Every structure is written in structure tokens, then in C-alpha cells.
Amino acid sequence: MQITMKSSSCAPTNWVSQLMNFGINATRRPSVFGRTAHVFKLQGEAVELLQDPLQTVSSVVETLTQTQKRIVDALIACDVVVNAPQVPKRKVRGYCGH
């Protein structure tokens, strides 16, 4: 299953603090091609997603546990995820459309 994050230039500015309100810890580290790898943890389980400064990036997660689904739902609520299995499919562009 693919989960697509918005580019960092299009994501809301306060999305990390919103995740903390859900009880989710977020860490980040540099990744390849100038991207950022975000690791979201809740109750000992994690989801790792990639984010690019300029375009949307899809990450593949094979199966989601109940806790990981809660993480993805929180990302949807924070308006960071463009598409995920729980939301209707939309055409994803390489820019945020502003």
C-alpha cells in the first residue's frame, strides 16, 4: 500500500506539533536525493515515510497494524498525507498547486 506525503514546501507549518497532540513521536533524518526520512512512533510501533522539499513522494508500507493505522489517520488529520488507503484517491502532482 502506498502512502504519499506532501512536499515540505506544501505541508502545514505546525504539523509536527499537531502529531504530538495525538501522542505520536516524530523523528527525522537525511535520506537520499535531498529527501528527509520521517519516523513516526506510537506505542512501540513505527511508520517511516519519505518527504521531498519540492515534490510529493510515495512510500510503500506492506501491511499496517492497528497502531500504524492510527499513525496514518493522524497524518491525514494533520493534512500531511496526500493519499492513503483510508482517503479517496486523488491525482497527485509534483507540486502543491498553490
Alpha-carbon Rg, integer: 12 Å
Main sheet makeup: 3 strands, antiparallel
Helical segment count: 2
Structural class: alpha+beta
Give the strand tally. Answer: 6
Strand content: 25-35%
Overall geometry comes to: globular
List segments where confidence is low: pLDDT < 50 over at least 5 consecutive residues.
86-98
Series of secondary-structure elements, N-terminal to C-terminal: EHEEEEHE
Overall pLDDT level: 82
**How do the strands line up in the largest sheet?**
5-1-6
Instruction: Estimate percent helicity.
Output: 10-25%
Termini, distance in Å? 27 Å
Q: What would you note in describing this structure?
A:
- The protein has 98 residues and is of the alpha+beta class.
- It has two helices and six strands.
- Strands 5-1-6 form a three-stranded antiparallel beta sheet, covered by helices on one side.
- Strand 3 and strand 4 form a beta hairpin.
Question: Which features characterize this protein?
Answer:
98 residues, alpha+beta, three-stranded antiparallel β-sheet, 6 strands, globular
